[in-house]
Amino acid sequence: MITRKSKREIEQMQKAGDLLVKCHKEIAKMIKPGITTMEIDAFVERFLAKHGATPEQKGFSGYPYATCASINDEICHGFPREEKLVSGDIVTIDMVVKLNGGLADSAWSYAVGELDEQGKRLLEVTKTSLYKGIEQAEVGKRIGDIGHAIQTYAEAQGFSVVRDFTGHGIGPTIHEPPHIPHFGLPNKGARLKEGMVITIEPMINEGSWKSKMDANNWTARTIDKGRSAQYEHTIAITKDGPLILTEQD
After folding, report:
1. Who has the most CB within 10 Å: 33, 41, 142, 157?
2. pLDDT 10s digits, 88-104
3. CB contact at 8 A, 91 and 228
4. Is residue 2 part of a domain?
5. Rounded (5°) CA angle 4-9-10
6. What is the count of structural domains for the chain?
7. Comparing C-alpha atoms, which of 228, 233, 232, 231 is closest to residue 75?
8. Structural domain boundaries, residue 143
9. pLDDT at 249 over 80
10. Which run of H or E residues covers position 76?
11. Distance separating alpha carbons of residues 140 and 237, to the nearest angstrom
């Protein structure tokens, strides 16, 4: 069942979003060659505990970490590890913050050191595709409008859109109906209504959109070793348009 949130619930989620943004901004300062994603994960644990929040995905369906940390050809759900990041890497840090009952979910892709021009384009196109999707997140529009906007833009730029993983409703748990595909046809799917809170989180690849699963049964990666990037926001559907609860102004 698709739930619609009250003004008070959205305000709680906004506070969780504000804290998540602060955490991402601190992570951005840490991203450099030589750091490990395990160090970043430990920082997130400390940061959230200090501010009275918890990493909601830790323990979710048995997931063992506070963050997902996906590097280069890893599409999503990469495990933090002790391997040092090197210049030229792309790393995506994804996390869900719970603060006083409110949830917020946001992923951000970071360039490590010096990134080649194709890698820079991948990040730019992925971020732009997120905002193309958010523009469609209005009362009365349909879920297909979001996916169509993302797909047509990203594919026109020469990239592919992952289809095996989608955005989703959020609150009171991490994953709620509806699914929010990042591809599709306009004017198809459930209609967006005031009070819905969803994530839009396009995963865009250099090569094929198809994925394969690692032996850990969590980490998805590209089938052709092409790099992948992801940007994600939590968005409330309001009568005044989409309200981004995790905006990093």
Report:
1. 41
2. 999 999 999 999 999 99
3. no
4. no
5. 80
6. 1
7. 228
8. 7-244
9. no
10. strand 74-76
11. 10
